[in-house]
Automatic annotation (TrEMBL):
Cross-referenced InterPro entries: HPT_dom_sf
Biological processes per GO annotation: phosphorelay signal transduction system
UniProt organism field: Cognatishimia maritima
Name this protein carries in UniProt: Uncharacterized protein
Length: 125
């Protein structure tokens, strides 16, 4: 009998704190906190909306949502989520249903972890 490989759903989340610090420096701590918080809420809302698009098989709508999530997450230093969005976009462009399902599940998982991590480790004074 062959061996069974175990896939782990945990992966380290990469945050680019320099982006938040740069916002802090340019806009001040209060304004940058508002911007980052609004961006995080936008990412969370778009992730929630994207679940309906995925369930409906609306790959075009899902592609738009994923690209937007990737752009917003990149702007606030969520490097891991931005990278997963790139992978999901490629799967969607190729129309590869198993790859879409796998990368989208990863996007939701990494997105949730990234939002939690950024909430816990903001670089605000």
């Amino acid at each position: 009998m062959g061996t069974v490989d175990v896939l782990f759903n945990n992966e380290p989340i990469q945050l680019e704190s320099a982006k938040v610090l740069k916002l802090n420096k340019a806009l001040g701590p209060k304004r940058s906190q508002i911007i980052v918080t609004n961006a995080m809420e936008d990412v969370a809302m778009r992730m929630s909306h994207s679940e309906a698009l995925f369930q409906q098989g609306d790959w075009e709508g899902l592609g738009k949502a994923v690209r937007t999530i990737g752009k917003i997450s990149g702007q606030i230093g969520m490097r891991s989520l931005s990278a997963v969005c790139d992978a999901a976009s490629i799967a969607l462009q190729n129309g590869d249903a198993p790859a879409i399902a796998a990368t989208y599940a990863r996007l939701l998982r990494v997105g949730d972890q990234s939002l939690s991590e950024l909430c816990e480790h903001r670089d605000f004074p």
